[in-house]
Each structure stands twice: as C-alpha cells, then as structure tokens.
Amino acid sequence: MEISALTRSVVKRSHALISQDGYINSVVPGWTHCTVNVIINEQMGARFCQTMVTLQVGGVLSGRTRQSQLFIYVISGKGRAVVSGESRYLFAGHFVYIPVGKEYHFDGGEEGTQLLTFHKVYEPLEGAAVPLTLFGNAGDVAGKEYLGDRALHLQVLLPENLSFDMAVNIFTYDPGGHLPMVETHIMEHGLLYLQGQGIYRLDQDWYPVKKGDSIWMAPYCQQWFTAMGKEPAVYIYYKNVNRHPTTL
Length: 248
Ligand code: UGY
Ligand code: MN
Description:
Elements: E1 10-11, E2 15-18, E3 31-40, E4 49-64, E5 68-76, E6 78-83, E7 86-91, E8 94-98, E9 103-107, E10 114-121, E11 134-137, E12 144-146, E13 149-156, E14 166-173, E15 189-195, E16 197-202, E17 205-210, E18 214-217, E19 223-228, E20 233-240
Antiparallel strand pairs: 1-2, 2-18, 3-4, 4-9, 4-10, 5-8, 5-10, 6-7, 6-9, 8-11, 12-13, 13-14, 14-20, 15-18, 15-20, 16-17, 16-19
Residues 171, 183, 189, 223, 237, 239 line the site of (2S)-amino(carbamoylamino)ethanoic acid.
C-alpha cells in the first residue's frame, strides 16, 4: 500500500530534490490549456526558474521575454514554436533558446506533450552581443567525454561564447559511471532526469533518483552522482556561466 505521508522530495537551503508525486499546478498568465509545475525558482533561494509544462488539448504558451531569457526543451510530444515571427516545428529532443525582449508563442502540440523550461535574468556583458534566437536538436549535438572518462558523455546545447550567461547540457552516464570527484563550485544547477536512475550526493545527503525527478543545487552545494541499473542515466541541466563572480 502507498503511504501518502511519504515522499522522496526534500527542500533544503543548499539543494532540493523534487519528485513528481508532490506537484501542485500553477497558473501562468499566457500559458493556457496546460498544466504548469514550477519546480525551482527564486522563492527557494535559486537565481533561475525551472518549470515542467504538460499540454492539454489546444495548449498554448504565449508571452514576451522581459529581463529573463527562456529555454524550452521538448521532453516528449511535439509542437510549433514561433519567436518574433520565426516558426519551427519541434519534436522530442528539440529546443529553442529565446533571448530577452522577444515575443514567443508555442502551440500545435498534441495532448500530453511535455516541455521543460529554464528562465534566467540576462546579465549583459560589455563587448559581447546579446544572443540571438536559437533553434536546435539535441540529437544533432555530438557528445564529448567528460574529464577523460569514457563512461561519461556531455552534450553542450548552447554556444560556448561570452554572449551566453547560461549553459544547458545533457549528461549521460553509462551504467556504473560516476562523477570523478565531489564537485564543489560557485555555479548553480537545475536538472531534470530524462532516463535511468542512480544515487546523487548533495552536500552530506545521499538520494536515490530516477527519471522524472528534478534537483536544484545552490552555489557550492557539493555534488556527486553514480548511475545504477542496466540502462544509461541521463539528465539535462542548467548552469550559470561566463560572468564575474561578484557584484562588488
Ligand atoms: O557541469 C557541471 O558542473 C556538472 N558536471 N555538474 C553536475 O553534473 N552535477
Ligand atoms: Mn556541477
């Protein structure tokens, strides 16, 4: 028997694990006929936002980016994204990066289409142009070995230049693969498990995690992961990059 008083979710000052059993829906103006779950945002202490959107019949996401840039990744299903008049059909694994100050519209999705979004306030940098809208397909992005380990494959979805102040990567661990050390760093992460399972260490705690789980890691949250099971473990994650480490 399931006991409804139990959950794997935790929310702490330095990290959170959010499993889908605790989702409560939000209403986001302009996002209609869809179920929206705000998984990570500044209320938690984060400096970015991560949501999961599930389309109903006739689901639409419509609006204008203001201070925040918006990254949309299609987890499953399909739809049409229009950004400042430029239109593309997106399928599972496709994504669109929408810079600040753009009108956007997502429609035409079949019922049940799932979207992951990341939102981050853009920090301009003198001498670096504001990025342009970018459509892409993770299936076309070659993976590279992470820190020389053949069990770890990293796909970097956004260009690695100083115009961008955020990265979105897909990290694939072969069964038994693990991070080579406990990472301790200033950059923040938000991630969503796309496949498989494993054990995540966050500071001094150890969590079993699986497909559908999300994790927030604050700056300096210590992190390590090992994949378990018979299939690769895959997560997509956000990271802030390329800006000065202090506002002083
Ligand atoms: O890019 C990263 O910092 C990445 N290796 N961290 C992580 O997967 N927790
Ligand atoms: Mn990291």
